[in-house]
Amino acid sequence: MAGVPDPESVSDHCFETAIIAYMLAQQIAEPVDMGKVLAMALFHETGEVRLTDLPRRSAPYVKQFKRKAEQDASVDILGGVAESVLPLLEEMHELETLEARLVEAAEELQIIAAAMYYAKENRGDMSEYRRDAEKYDPLGIGPAAAVAEVVKRRLGEYLGEKPYWELGYSRHSVADDRAKG
C-alpha cells in the first residue's frame, strides 16, 4: 500500500523481530527467558498465514474481531504440530510479562526501522510511519526507547517535510459530512 517495490515478507519481519528482541534482552539487567522471547518473536504472526498482513489503517474497522480470527488461525495452523507455542502467543498479546513486553517492543521497533530503511532508499511513501515512530511505546524496555529515538530522528531526516496524505483515510463518510450540513 505504501508503494514499496519488493517489500519485506512476514517471515523477514518475524526473523528481524527475533534478532532485535535478542539484542534488546542482552542490554537489560533483568533475567529473561530467551526461549520464550525467541519463540514469541518467530511465531507472533502465525495468524497472518491465513489472514494476511492487514495494514494498520484497517485497525478501526477490524480490530474488534481481528484478534479472535488470528487466534483461531493460529490454533488451526499449530494444532497437532506446535501447540506449545499457542500459550506463548496469548502471553505476548497480554503484555504482562517481561518477555512479552520485550517482543512487542522489538516488533514495533522493527516496523519503524524498516520504514526508516525504505525512506532512506526512497522506496515507497513512508510518511505515515512518522506517526508510528512518534507514538512508539517501549513498554518499559529502556534500550528499545533509545534505539527508537535514533530511528525517529533518522526517519524524520529521510522524509524531510514530506507530509502524510490524509485524504481518503478519515473514519467518517462523505454522507456523514453532508448530514452535518
UniProtKB/TrEMBL annotation:
Keywords, sorted A to Z: Coiled coil, Hydrolase, Metal-binding
Q: Where is the signal peptide?
A: none
Annotated HD/PDEase domain residues: 6-121
Which cofactor(s) does the record list? Mn(2+); Co(2+)
Write down the Gene3D superfamilies for this protein, in alphabetical order: Hypothetical protein af1432
Kindly state which reaction or reactions the protein catalyses: a 2'-deoxyribonucleoside 5'-phosphate + H2O = a 2'-deoxyribonucleoside + phosphate
Q: Which residues cross the membrane?
A: none
Task: Supply the EC number(s).
Answer: 3.1.3.89
Record-linked InterPro entries: HD/PDEase_dom, HD_domain, YfbR/HDDC2
Which portions of this protein are annotated as coiled-coil regions? 88-115
Assembly mode = Homodimer.
PANTHER family given in the database record:
5'-DEOXYNUCLEOTIDASE HDDC2
- The identity of this protein, by name, is 5'-deoxynucleotidase
**Species assigned in the record:** Paractinoplanes durhamensis
